[in-house]
């Protein structure tokens, strides 16, 4: 994004005509300065530029090529495709530019118990009937002594298990055919792709290291930033995409950090890309290890690997050695060590500064939510876009909804750890004994009581996602909806068989994932091991 002077455009004019001055009353923004590039900075730049293309707003991205970005946010959720549409590009364009692949969900290995796995799909389970959700009928069948996998009634899971892919139909004839998809991509190539698009829409890019952030002591507003090359960049609105440093919001404005490491134990990660030797899978894999978990993200040109771990239970050297020993092919780079504190800033918007990405907070990439939070952060900023008065009500609403969004995701991630069945391992034993946030405890109580799925405001993960976790971790309900008893067990057996047939017919229309991407690869034989 960009920046010019606050007030009349002259550097150092203080608050004479600043964000709260009379001359700025109801005056539209003239300039937006984005500090930091990477995925966060360039996603913000492209979406703001597209939405404000007919407004006289200058957008500048200040990014230093000397500062390395984290660069491991390579997996997404289906909402990313809405972002692509907003900026006028297709999934195929992004995947071609960033060596991308399709993603139907996440496979979880060894989380419930060693040797077991389950799948979190981007799709629905079964079909509702008589106003009753499918999982109540599924529970009734299991309780009647006819156990069946929940996963067998989800098209996205069926495709992923066979390494197949097809585009969803726009108007599925029934819920069994509904599924969604996301993408994996090389984060560095993705940022470069966005930077090129942003340049086409007039975004200015300044490659410079920031040496100082100038804050008006009277108002607490940022006036501008100074750079090592001697260039001073002033602006009306500042977007902090400076990563873990949080140069503007956390540094210059001193907004505190709320630490969640007491309920989410991992505080470090090591990433090593490697050559791919297995099939081109259309899903992310998360494998639980003794002191954390390993991600596997398949790209066209390599596989992204990382070990997210708790430093109190394993040393950095041990973590690197563990990950090296689990690579499926030749390592393509040296280990990238990342230290983090799970949590968020106590405010995301203060004064004339909004933070996105790592500058706003961090939750480990267990469910690929980092890029989602960037995307929704920009969307909320646009929905509440201020003028130069910066009405505090706008920041208050942004902070309220963003805090809820972070907390909802936090609860979903905490469930993964708290529900584990890996007994006899210090980290995992401690996770099961950790007190849950009350919002999560309430969800669990209601589901265990009668299979009721609680949905709060600003949920990122909807009912099917929670259901996949409950089923995957063996969390059962004590009872089902009594309306489900309108059907006999034999009725349900026949209906379930028809559902499986419908899914099989749909799967028969799909093609190998590699073929969908236009790559040559023999039809795969690998399958996700069925959940036990």
Portion in beta strands = 15-25%
The count of helical stretches stands at 15
Uncertain segments are 1-24, 522-532
Q: From the coordinates shown, what is the CATH architecture of the largest domain? A: 3-Layer(bba) Sandwich
Rounded mean pLDDT score: 92
Report the radius of gyration as a whole number of Å.
24 Å
Helix content: 25-40%
Overall domain count: 3
CATH superfamily of the largest domain: FAD/NAD(P)-binding domain
Q: What is the CATH level 1 assignment of the largest domain?
A: Alpha Beta
SS-based class? alpha+beta
Question: Mind summarizing the main beta sheet?
Answer: 7 strands, mixed
Q: Which fold name corresponds to the CATH topology of the largest domain?
A: FAD/NAD(P)-binding domain
User: What's the total number of strands?
Assistant: 23
């Amino acid at each position: 994004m960009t920046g010019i002077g606050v007030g009349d455009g002259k550097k150092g004019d203080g608050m004479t005509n600043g964000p709260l001055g009379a001359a700025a009353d109801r005056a539209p923004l003239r300039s937006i300065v984005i500090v930091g590039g990477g995925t966060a900075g360039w996603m913000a730049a492209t979406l703001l530029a597209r939405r404000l293309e007919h407004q006289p707003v200058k957008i500048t991205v200040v990014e230093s090529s000397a500062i390395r970005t984290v660069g491991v946010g390579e997996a997404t959720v289906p909402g990313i495709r809405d972002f692509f549409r907003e900026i006028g590009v297709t999934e195929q364009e992004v995947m071609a530019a960033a060596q991308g692949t399709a993603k139907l969900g996440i496979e979880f290995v060894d989380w419930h118990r060693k040797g077991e796995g389950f799948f979190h799909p981007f799709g629905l389970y079964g079909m509702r009937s008589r106003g009753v959700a499918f999982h109540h009928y599924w529970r009734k069948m299991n309780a009647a002594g006819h156990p069946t996998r929940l996963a067998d009634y989800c098209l996205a899971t069926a495709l992923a298990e066979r390494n197949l892919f097809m585009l969803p139909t726009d108007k599925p004839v029934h819920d069994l055919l509904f599924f969604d998809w996301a993408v994996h991509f090389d984060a560095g190539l993705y940022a470069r792709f966005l930077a090129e698009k942003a340049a086409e829409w007039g975004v200015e890019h300044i490659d410079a290291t920031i040496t100082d952030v100038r804050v008006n002591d009277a108002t607490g507003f940022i006036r501008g930033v100074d750079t090592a090359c001697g260039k001073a960049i002033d602006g009306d609105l500042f977007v902090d995409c400076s990563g873990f440093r949080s140069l503007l919001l956390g540094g210059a404005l001193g907004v505190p950090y709320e630490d969640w490491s007491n309920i989410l134990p991992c505080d470090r990660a090591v990433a090593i890309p490697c050559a791919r030797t297995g099939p081109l899978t259309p899903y992310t894999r998360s494998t639980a290890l003794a002191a954390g978990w390993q991600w596997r993200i398949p790209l066209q040109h390599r596989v992204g690997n990382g070990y997210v771990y708790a430093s109190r239970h394993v040393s950095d050297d041990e973590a690197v050695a563990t990950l090296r020993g689990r690579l499926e092919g030749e390592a393509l780079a040296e280990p990238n060590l990342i230290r983090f504190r799970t949590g968020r800033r106590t405010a995301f918007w203060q004064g004339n500064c909004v933070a996105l990405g790592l500058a706003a907070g961090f939750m480990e990439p267990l469910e690929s939510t980092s890029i989602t939070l960037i995307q929704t952060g920009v969307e909320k900023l646009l929905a509440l876009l201020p003028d130069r008065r910066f009405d505090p009500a706008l920041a208050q609403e942004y902070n309220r909804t963003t805090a809820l969004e972070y907390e909802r995701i936090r609860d979903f991630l905490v469930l993964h750890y708290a529900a584990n069945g890996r007994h006899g391992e210090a980290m995992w034993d401690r996770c099961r004994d950790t007190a849950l946030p009350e919002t999560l405890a309430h969800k669990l109580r209601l589901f265990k009581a009668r299979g009721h799925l609680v949905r709060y405001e600003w949920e990122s993960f909807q009912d099917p996602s929670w259901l996949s976790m409950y089923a995957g971790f063996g969390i059962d309900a004590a009872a089902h909806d009594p309306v489900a008893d309108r059907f006999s067990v034999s009725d349900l057996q026949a209906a379930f068989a028809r559902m499986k047939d419908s899914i099989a017919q749909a799967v028969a229309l799909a093609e190998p994932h590699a073929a969908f991407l236009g790559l040559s690869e023999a039809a795969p034989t690998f399958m996700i091991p069925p959940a036990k």
